[in-house]
Amino acid sequence: MGIVLFDGVAYGMLLFLMAVGLSITMGLMNFVNLAHGSFAVVGGYTAAVLMNQAGLGYAAALAAAFVAAALLGAVLEFVFYRRLYRAHPLDQVLLSIGVVFVSIAALTYFFGPTMLAFHLPPALQGQFLLAGLEFSRYRLFLIVCGVVVLAVLMLAMGRTRYGAMVRAAVDNQRVAGGTGIHVQRLFFLTFSLGCGLAGLGGALSLGMLGLEPSFPLKYMVYFLIVVCVGGAGTITGPFIAALLVGIVDVAGKYYLPEAGAFLIYVFMIAMLLLRPNGIVPKKGIA
Amino acid sequence: MKPITLTPGQLRAAEVLFWLALASTFFLAPDHRTLLSQIFIFGLFAVALDMALGYAGILTVGHAAFFGAGAYTAGLLAKHGWGEPFSGLLAALVVAGALGYALSYLIVRGADLTRLMITIGVCVLLYELANRLSAITGGSDGLQGMNVSPVFGVFEFDLFGKTAFCYAFGVVLAMFLLVRLILRSPFGLALRGIHDNRKRMLAIGSPVEARLRMAYGFSAAVAGVAGALLAQTTQFVGIESIGFNRSAEILIILVLGGTGRLYGGLVGAIVYMLVHDWFADLNPEYWMFWLGIFLIAAVMLGRGGIMGALSRRIRTKEHAR
Q1: Cα of A69 to nearest chain B Cα, Å
Q2: pLDDT value for A282
Q3: Would you say B189 and B196 are in contact if contact means Cβ atoms under 8 Å apart?
Q4: For an engineered disulfide with B46, which of A188, B113, B212, B254 has Cβ 3.0 to 4.6 Å away?
C-alpha cells in the first residue's frame, strides 16, 4: 500500500512536470496543443544523448533538456503557433498532430524506433529503508523535483510581476492587454517556459517511463487528462489531478492488472462529468 | 482566373458524372478493385465524420470508436453464424448509432476541450476493451474466421474483389444519398445554422442540443456502416480500426478533401488512399513525416482542402451547396 502510494505520487509528479506547461498553454492562450509530449520527448533525448555521448552529468543534462525544449518551443511558437491563437480549435488540433507526426518520424530517423538506453547516476540508484519499506531513491528524487517545481511556480505566479501579468491574461486577455501588458510577448515567454518544463519532465522520466519516438502519442492522453481534470489555466489543479491520475494508474496496474488502462479513462470521464471545468476551475468560468 | 459558373442542372450532371466515374473504375482498374472498395469505405467514413465535425461543428478526434464498433459488430455476427451482409450492416448501424447517441449526452454539454477529451478518451477506452477481450475480439491479432454469406444469396465474395467492389459501391452510394438528403432537409439546415451561429439559433427557438445529439448519433451510425463494410469486404477486423491513429487518419482525409462539404470526404479519401498506395513501399516513418508536414501546411496555407480550392474556382448559381 505504502509503496503503491509512493510510486503513484512519483509518477504523478512526472505527469505534473510534463503537463503543467500544457495547462498554461490551454488556459492562457486557449490553444489545444496535442504536441506537448513532443517537447517532453525532445528534452528527454537531449538529456540522454548528452549523458551517453558527451558524458555530461545528470544535473547539467537536465538543465540542457530544459533549454533545448524551451528553445524548440520558442521557435515553433514564433513560426506556427502564434498565428493560430484565434483560429478554430480544429486547426490547432491538426497543426499539433502534424507536429507530433513530424517529431516521431524525425526521432525515429535519427535514433531508431526502440527505447533509448539510459543509466541513472549512481547517487540515484538503489533503495533506502523507511518504516520497514524499501523506497527507490530515484522516485524520491522525482517527488522532490515535482514539489520544488510546484513551489517555484506558485511563488513565480503568486509573488512576481510576471506571474501577476500571466494571471491577469488568463482571467481576461482583453482587459490585460488594455492595461498595457504585452500579451503577445507574455504568450511567447510562457509557452517557452511550459515547453522547457515539459523537456525537464521528459528528461526526468528517462529512468521511469523510458523514452521512445512514439512517446508523444502514447502519453498525449495522459497529459490531456491531467489538464482537463485539473482545470486548464491553473497550477494547483493539474498538480492535484496529476497525483490522482498517477495514484489511480499505478494502483490499477498493481491491484487490477487485467483492467489495464481502463481505470484511468473511467476516472477521467467520471471526473469530467462531476466537474466539467476541472477540479480547480479558472476564474471567470466557474 | 475567372470563376466558372455552373447552373444547378450542370452541377447535378457533375455529381452523376462523379459517381459514374467511380463506378467505371471497376472496368478501368480491374487490378485495384480491393483498393478502390477501401477508398469508397473510407470516403463514407469521412462523410460521416464530416456530419459531426464539418456540419454540426462538434470537435471530435475519436470517430474510429464508431467505425470500430460497427466493424466488430458485423465481424462478430459473421463469425458466429449470421453471415447475411445487409442485416450485418443494419446491426452495425444500430449498434454504432446507439453508442453515438448515448455518448452524445456526454459530448454535447462540454466545451471544445472537454469534447475533444471525451472523444479521445472513449476511443482509447474502446481500443483497450477490444484489446483486453481477446477471447471475443481476437485482441491485437484481429478478428479472424468471419464467414460472410453471398450478397442477395447469389454473389459470393470472391478473391478478386468483384463482389466486394460492387457491394461497397452500392452501399456507399446509398448511404451517401441518405446523408445528402438529411443534410439538405430542415434538420441539416438547422445544423448549418448552429455551426454558423449557435446563439442566434437558440434565440429563434431551435433545440440546439437535441439537434447536435441527433447529428452526432447519425454520424456515428454512418461511421458504423463504413466499419461494417470494411469488415465484410475484407473478412477481417484489425484492432487498429478502432484506435486513435485511425481517427487521426480519417481527420486528415477529411481535411484534405475539405470539411463542411458533401464531397470533401470522398475526394479526400480518393486522393489520400491513392497517394498512400503509391508510397506504400516507403518506410512508414517517412510517410508519417510527410503526413505531418502536410497537416502543418494545410493549416498554415490552405483553407477548405481540395473542395475549398475547387469552390473558389467554380461558382454555382444554386445557393444550397
Answers
A1: 19
A2: 66
A3: no
A4: B254
pLDDT digits (tens, 9 = 90+) for A94-153: 888 889 989 988 888 888 777 777 777 776 676 676 666 677 788 888 888 889 989 998
Which chain B positions have a beta carbon within 8 Å of A84's beta carbon?
Answer: 299
> Are residues A228 and A273 in contact, defined by beta-carbon separation less than 8 angstroms?
no
Query: Can you tell me the distance from the alpha carbon of B302 to that of A91, in angstroms, rounded to the nearest whole number?
Result: 11
Q: How many CB contacts within 8 angstroms connect chain A with chain B?
A: 119
Contact B46, B264 (CB under 8 A): yes
Q: Inter-chain contact B110–A108, Cβ cutoff 8 Å?
A: no
CATH code assigned to B4-316: 1.10.3470
Q: Do A276 and B106 touch (CB under 8 A)?
A: no
Contact A84 B299 (CB under 8 A): yes
Q: Which three cell numbers stand for residue B70?
A: 460497427
ipTM for this model: 0.78
- CA–CA separation, A281 vs A283, rounded Å? 6
Interface test with B, best of A25, A93, A248 (most B CBs within 10 A): A93
Q: Tell me whether residue B300 is exposed, middle or buried, using C-beta atoms within 10 angstroms of its C-beta: 0 to 12, 13 to 18, 19 or more.
A: middle
Inter-chain residue contact A105 with B255, CB threshold 8 Å: no
**Facing residue for A101 by CB, picked from B112, B288, B298:** B288
Q: What was the pLDDT predicted at B320?
A: 45
| 8 Å CB contact of B129 and A100 | no
State the residue for C-alpha cell 452541377: B11
**Predicted TM-score of the model (pTM):** 0.82
Cα A148–A154–A159 angle (5° rounding)?
Answer: 125
